[in-house]
Amino acid sequence: MTVVARTERLILRHIIAADAAPLYAVFCDADVMRFSKGVKTEEWVDNWVREIPATHYPEWGFGLWTVEEKAARSAIGYCGLFRTELCAAGEAEIGYRLATPFWGKGYAREIAAAACDAGFAQFGLSRILGLVDPQNRGSVRVLEALGMRYEGEIMKDWYDHPDHLYTLARGETP
Ligand SMILES: CC(C)(COP(=O)(O)OP(=O)(O)OC[C@H]1O[C@@H](n2cnc3c(N)ncnc32)[C@H](O)[C@@H]1OP(=O)(O)O)[C@@H](O)C(=O)NCCC(=O)NCCS
Fold first, then answer.
1. Which CATH superfamily is domain 3-129 in?
2. What contacts 166, CB < 8 A, 6 or more positions away?
3. CA 56 to CA 80: how far, in whole Å?
4. Residue 120 Cα to ligand 1 middle (Å)
5. Which residue's alpha carbon is nearest to atom 17 within ligand 1?
């Protein structure tokens, strides 16, 4: 199993097919998916855990990764870096979702910081973007804790309201 980073309490590692069942608690939970376009089916998650390792890692080296709690050795969510149409060369967007029993412990801050460090140090990124619904206060706080700077609003074709764009350049980490 390829480990990307270790923090005090968490491990960030490549996604494997066996992560599907624990990740149902992420993608199939209405609270976790509140700021997304609804919950996913278990079948969708089964496909996702196969598709990400087959596309992200070979193409970019990095990608979305499984977050594992060290104490329990169990997958509790995902966090990672991925390229979108907003990303110039050397840039990636950060994304994260954790199952609700693991909220409020500082885990998102801890693992998102490790993902950014890996993006800059291991994968040579020059800038990391964070795109967030401004009503998603928890996620906004995570981006701010990373030292990200608010850049402005982004309105995609299919949005009904703008997201907020945050950025962090290499060397700016707190
Ligand atoms: C957003 C999410 C990852 C935060 O995870 P978490 O582990 O609970 O976050 P942390 O404990 O690291 O908290 C980070 C900060 O956010 C604050 N915070 C967390 N949830 C919050 C909420 N619902 N409302 C307000 N502040 C919140 C914490 O108090 C902390 O603030 P601080 O830095 O001032 O101490 C988690 O709630 C989640 O998975 N949400 C659903 C998926 C999602 O929205 N992903 C982001 C899409 S852009």
1. Gcn5-related N-acetyltransferase (GNAT) (3.40.630.30)
2. 129, 130, 131, 132, 143, 144, 148, 149, 150, 151
3. 10
4. 23
5. 138
Residue 167 has which token pair?
């950025």
147 CA distance to ligand 1 centroid (A)? 15
**Alpha carbon separation from 100 to 30, 33, 108, 125 (Å, rounded):** 10, 11, 12, 30
Instruction: Say how many C-beta atoms besides its own lie within 10 A of residue 129's C-beta.
Output: 22
Neighbours of 128 (CB within 10 A): 26
Q: Output phi, psi for 82, to 5 deg.
A: -150, 155
Task: Give Cβ neighbours of residue 58 (< 8 Å, ≥ 6 apart).
Answer: none
As given in the structure block, the two tokens for residue 109 are 């801050």
Q: Note the pLDDT tens digit of each residue in 104-148.
A: 999 999 999 999 999 999 999 999 999 999 999 999 999 999 999
Can you give the pTM of this predicted structure? 0.96
Instruction: List the residue whose alpha carbon is closest to atom 30 of ligand 1.
Output: 141
User: Helix %, strand %, coil % for the chain, to 5?
Assistant: 35, 30, 40
Q: Where are the domains of the chain?
A: 3-129
